[in-house]
């Protein structure tokens, strides 16, 4: 399709029928004022309300609009992934459908990517209109992500409004609930020019939020897996092997200590306690068993990564 398209706007949505018309009109207005060629890709994540009907109606009036509908609800990450695959624009935006993100931010973010050469510009909802039960855990979540990912300059990883250079979204794969960590995935794929822009945020106008408090638990677990996979995914033995060696070493040393102590006592003719009465005996036993288990886990990990189809998948930037 048209590869000279300036902008694709990928919008995942789940039961947002009230917002879609207003959002489409607003985006179209901004795009026309700035003379951008654009497409809006609505990904209906299995809505049970009239969202898809509204999208079909809107498409009759607006040729820039495209729509993809899932048969059931798969989650925001799935929506983004499919939307990314379909996008043709040189700069690809993601936005929430609930009118909390403002399309007025798009031209400036576009300029930052095209003129200033950023790979990814993330929105930062500096002033948020969400309940405190959400804003406070979000602060913790962002601090943890900053630390683990080494992306020190982002305040708001999970902002729905983001702009990407096309190559970024064609490279990273968003799955599970990893939409919270696209900047991290991008960085690990080698796109390091990541920055943010303060964006306007509004209260949800229609409908309700689709994510409850479990978002923070899931988010934290995802952060752990993503860090593990990026660091050790291709060499699991290096993690499990070193932990295993450490554990086994501790066990072995304390077992040696027990043995030597016993011999020393006996040679001096002092009455020594039974080895099994010595607490170190149990520590060493446990440590050696755990150490061996970690080794086994490491070997299994290596077997799995050897057979993985992505074991030799690298992101090549240029070739001459
Ligand atoms: N969303 C989706 N699939 C889901 C849940 C949410 O496509 O399973 C969409 C939702 O319609 C919205 C965006 O993801 O466009 C962000 O969701 P929401 O506004 O509920 O999240 P919050 O703003 O509360 O973080
Ligand atoms: Mg929202």
Describe this structure in words.
By secondary structure, the protein is of the alpha/beta class. The chain has two domains: 7-232, Spore Coat Polysaccharide Biosynthesis Protein SpsA, Chain A, CATH 3.90.550; 236-306. Helix content is 49%, strand content 12%. The protein is built from ten helices and seven strands. The chain has helices at 20-33, 51-61, 76-86, 106-114, 132-149, 166-171, 182-188, 214-232, 236-267, 279-307, and strands at residues 7-13, 38-44, 65-69, 91-94, 120-124, 162-165, 194-198. A seven-stranded mixed sheet has the order 3-2-1-4-6-5-7, sandwiched between helices. Helix 5 packs parallel to helix 8 and helix 9 runs antiparallel to helix 10 (279-307). The protein is elongated. Bound molecules: uridine-5'-diphosphate and magnesium ion. Magnesium ion is lined by residues 96, 98, 100, 204, 209.
**In order across it, which strands form the biggest sheet?**
3-2-1-4-6-5-7
Estimate the strand proportion: 5-15%
Rg for CA atoms: 26 Å
Kindly give the count of domains: 2
CATH C-level category of the largest domain: Alpha Beta
Shape, please?
elongated
Judged by helices, strands and strand pairing, the structural class is alpha/beta
Distance between the amino and carboxyl termini: 26 Å
Q: What's the CATH topology name of the largest domain?
A: Spore Coat Polysaccharide Biosynthesis Protein SpsA, Chain A
Q: Helix amount, in percent? A: 40-55%
The count of β-strands is: 7
Question: Could you name the CATH homologous superfamily of the largest domain?
Answer: Spore Coat Polysaccharide Biosynthesis Protein SpsA, Chain A
Characterize the largest beta sheet: strand count, sense, and whether it forms a barrel. 7 strands, mixed
How would you state the average pLDDT, rounded?
93
At CATH level 2, the architecture of the largest domain is Alpha-Beta Complex
Number of helices: 10
N-to-C SSE series? EHEHEHEHEHEHHEHHH
Question: Ligands in the structure?
Answer: uridine-5'-diphosphate, magnesium ion
Outline the low-pLDDT stretches: none
């Amino acid at each position: 399709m048209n590869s000279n398209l300036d902008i694709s706007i990928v919008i995942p949505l789940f039961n947002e029928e009230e917002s879609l018309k207003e959002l489409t009109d607003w985006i179209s207005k901004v795009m026309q004022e700035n003379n951008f060629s654009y497409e809006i890709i609505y990904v209906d994540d299995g809505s049970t309300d009239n969202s898809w009907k509204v999208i079909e109606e809107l498409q009759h009036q607006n040729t820039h609009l495209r729509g993809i509908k899932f048969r059931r609800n798969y989650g925001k990450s799935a929506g983004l992934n499919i939307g990314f695959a379909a996008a043709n624009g040189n700069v690809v935006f993601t936005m929430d459908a609930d009118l909390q993100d403002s399309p007025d931010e798009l031209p400036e973010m576009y300029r930052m990517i095209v003129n200033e050469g950023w790979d990814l510009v993330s929105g930062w909802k500096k002033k948020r209109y969400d309940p405190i039960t959400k804003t406070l855990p979000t602060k913790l979540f962002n601090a943890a992500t900053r630390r683990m990912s080494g992306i020190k300059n982002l305040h708001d990883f999970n902002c729905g409004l983001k702009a990407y250079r096309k190559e970024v979204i064609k490279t990273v794969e968003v799955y599970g609930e990893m939409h919270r960590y696209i900047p991290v995935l991008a960085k690990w794929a080698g796109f390091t020019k990541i920055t943010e822009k303060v964006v306007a945020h509004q209260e949800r106008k229609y409908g309700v939020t689709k994510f409850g408090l479990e978002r923070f638990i899931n988010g934290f677990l995802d952060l752990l897996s993503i860090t593990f996979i990026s660091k050790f995914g291709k060499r699991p033995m290096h993690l499990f092997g070193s932990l295993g060696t450490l554990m086994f070493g501790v066990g072995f040393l304390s077992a040696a200590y027990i043995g030597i102590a016993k011999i020393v006592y006996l040679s001096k003719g002092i009455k020594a306690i039974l080895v099994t009465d010595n607490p170190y005996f149990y520590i060493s036993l446990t440590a050696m068993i755990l150490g061996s288990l970690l080794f086994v886990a490491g070997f299994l990990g290596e077997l799995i990564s050897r057979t993985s189809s992505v074991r030799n998948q690298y992101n090549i930037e240029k070739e001459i």
